[in-house]
Design goal:
The chain is α+β, with helices and mostly antiparallel strands. It is 38% helix and 23% strand. A 4-stranded antiparallel β-sheet has the order 1-7-6-5. A 3-stranded antiparallel β-sheet has the order 3-2-4. It is globular, with a radius of gyration of 18 Å. Bound molecules: zinc ion (ZN). The site of zinc ion has 7 residues, from loops. Zinc ion (ZN) is lined by residues 28, 30-31, 33, 57-58, 61.
């Protein structure tokens, strides 16, 4: 791959970063009436020239609405109304891991793509995220859509198809970031070597 192509790839990847976290709406994107607590909701990502638009809809509205486009991704979940302000917080450690993922996705550093992916997988295994969809790309990397079980945010994460022998090293970097023994800058410069 030449420099020009590689540059363009990173450019596209960077441009898309700010679109890669989408919160769940609280009203139906079609009829604009409130979504119902604990009732099914259809979530949809629509591909735009510069990213994704997210829609959250009553299943009935989604089924009956007319449209002339195909969703990039579509899944059915259960809408949960935002918790009251005095709700008990989750344990600190879990909060830290998903905060780190949000931070890394908005940080927009191509050198961190392996770390972002492994962190998302770790959050999925600890049942904080659920994978909703996956799209294989021409270069065999995969775009995976995760949804945060509690907040309903969707995260668009690139699965770089890590080789197994690199996995342990990346896991150690994630653990070092979570425990504070390494900074983001240190890990980023290790990864871009
Ligand atoms: Zn509706």
């Amino acid at each position: 791959m030449g420099f020009a192509t590689e540059g363009k790839l990173w450019y596209n990847l960077r441009m898309s970063q700010e679109w890669n976290i989408r919160s769940r709406g609280h009203i139906c994107s079609i009829c604009e009436k409130p979504l119902v607590d604990k009732a099914p909701v259809v979530s949809v990502l629509k591909e735009l020239p510069d990213g994704y638009e997210r829609m959250d809809c009553h299943p009935e509205c989604w089924k009956t609405a007319q449209r002339d486009w195909e969703p990039f991704s579509q899944w059915e979940g259960v809408y949960a109304a935002p918790p009251p302000p005095d709700a008990k917080k989750e344990p600190l450690k879990k909060e830290t891991a998903d905060e780190l993922l949000r931070h890394l996705i908005t940080l927009d550093d191509p050198a961190m793509k392996n770390v972002v992916y492994v962190l998302a997988v770790m959050l999925e295994r600890s049942k904080i995220l659920v994978e909703r969809d996956a799209h294989e790309q021409a270069d065999h990397t995969i775009i995976r859509i995760y949804e945060h079980r509690r907040t309903g945010e969707s995260f668009v994460v690139l699965d770089p198809r890590l080789r197994l022998e690199n996995l342990a090293e990346v896991q150690q970097q994630v653990v070092a970031l979570l425990s504070g023994t390494k900074t983001l800058g240190e890990v980023s410069s290790e990864e871009s070597k």
